[in-house]
Amino acid sequence: QLQVAESGGTLVQPGGSLRLSCATSGFNLEHWSIGWFRQAPGKEREGVSCFSSVDNYTYYADSVKGRFTISSDNARKTVYLQMNSLKPEDTAIYYCATGLPGSPPFGASCRRPSEFSNWGQGTQVTVSL
Questions:
Q1: Pairing state of beta strands 11-12 and 33-39?
Q2: I need a labelling partner for 115 at 20 to 30 A (CA). Which of 10, 95, 96, 109 fits?
Q3: Where are the beta strands (DSSP E) in the chain?
């Protein structure tokens, strides 16, 4: 059975750092795209960062470029999202999900969450004093 589970979310002060984890089961990470998405109250779900090892396709939303880094540990079947210089506007529930591998349009596009599946339950990140 294909499953993902997010963890690592918590309350953090502005300027702080967090590392989120996405533990997968039933997947070979080398054969899938993995995406991190977030949804803030009253807003649509948006793609934060996605990665496909098939062609090293990596995507970052403009709002997180230079602050967030996606990485994967294939042996542990875990994908990470390192978040630095956190801002209050980063507050959201963060989800990971899987998609077809490779760069868009052949693979899933991080700009279109509907192209991803196997969503986890999410982990809450709150950036506040």
A1: unpaired
A2: 10
A3: 3-7, 11-12, 18-25, 33-39, 46-52, 57-60, 68-73, 78-83, 92-99, 116-117, 123-127
